[in-house]
Amino acid sequence: MGVAGTGPIENDLTNHMQRVVIYAPYGKDADTLAQIVAGEDIEVVKVTDCSGLDEQLGPSCAALVVTEEALGPHQEQVFLRHLQAQPIWAALPILALVADASRLPPALRGLGMRAYRSELVVLQRPTHPETLRSTVQTLIMSRQRQYQVADHLETLKRKEKHLEFLLAELDHRVKNLLGKILSLLSLTRRETIDAEGFSAKFEARTRALVTAHDMLNGKNNLPATIGSLLENALAPFLPSVKSNVQTEGPELSLLPHGGLALAMAFNELATNSVKYGALSADDGIVSVRWALEGETPHLVVDWIEERGPAPKDSTRTGFGTKLLTVIVALELDGEADLVFRPEGIHWQLRAPYAGAER
């Protein structure tokens, strides 16, 4: 193929290899130019025929040095093909060595007339080696600036894709949250008979949803753990019921999707317990336990009430019952049971646990 190089072609622009291609059909010219141009940070590739040049031109070429003998009629098409295919940030630096700078070969005249993206420098031979070397260094520096532009463009593309992802995620979360609020509105309206009762219940449930949303999305650096969600649900009733609540479980964080539903469940259980259940009695006890079970981790949460008024197993299914038995299970892709025992209710949730990266 007539190509000799000191290393493989570098296509990774992040490394910015200073690879100079010397295209000279006469071997002695190529060797002489290589000796002049070569340096510790420059890789020289010598090309002696058109097929070899076709392989070497591209974004990883820092500069092209070409002699007049190589600039035949066919060569213009080779140049133009590569210049047309350049990335938008690229303008190939070309140093042409000619016998008469006032009479350029057709291949070079075509580059100027067609206004293709290239940085063409013409030196008339004979040229002092230092002039040749400094010109190549200048072209390499120009190419390095192009590489920097390429890096910036790539960074902008990544940021644009990330922004698109964030906007899509925001759209999804907003719609999800609005859907939950509409469900709260609809179901709370069904179970209340007066405006005052509806307002109080809807406000309390919405506040619980907002607080849980803040915790699960890391606002104010609050940890979105099961324990913190439970503590938040009980907060309005503390410290009066603190001695009546027993909790046990590891530190387990939750993803926002399922965490909102669990937070709402805790809020519903706590509110009902204070009004009608174990927490309405001086010696009533609420035990809340959670753990991971099985080889494929499943989250198991138990809310057990004792020593309170006997619960009424009403056939009328309100929002609270639907939330505890249907909505939470659907959100967490699990199962939930609510049992009305004489000594108090027992609510259990079982769902796959994937954790949450914090």
From TrEMBL:
<dbReference type="GO" id="GO:0004673">
    <property type="term" value="F:protein histidine kinase activity"/>
</dbReference>
<keyword id="KW-0597">Phosphoprotein</keyword>
<keyword id="KW-0067">ATP-binding</keyword>
<dbReference type="GO" id="GO:0005524">
    <property type="term" value="F:ATP binding"/>
</dbReference>
<protein>
    <recommendedName>
        <fullName>histidine kinase</fullName>
        <ecNumber>2.7.13.3</ecNumber>
    </recommendedName>
</protein>
<keyword id="KW-0547">Nucleotide-binding</keyword>
<dbReference type="InterPro" id="IPR011102">
    <property type="entry name" value="Sig_transdc_His_kinase_HWE"/>
</dbReference>
<dbReference type="InterPro" id="IPR036890">
    <property type="entry name" value="HATPase_C_sf"/>
</dbReference>
<feature type="domain" description="Signal transduction histidine kinase HWE region">
    <location>
        <begin position="169"/>
        <end position="251"/>
    </location>
</feature>
<keyword id="KW-0808">Transferase</keyword>
<dbReference type="Pfam" id="PF07536">
    <property type="entry name" value="HWE_HK"/>
</dbReference>
<keyword id="KW-0418">Kinase</keyword>
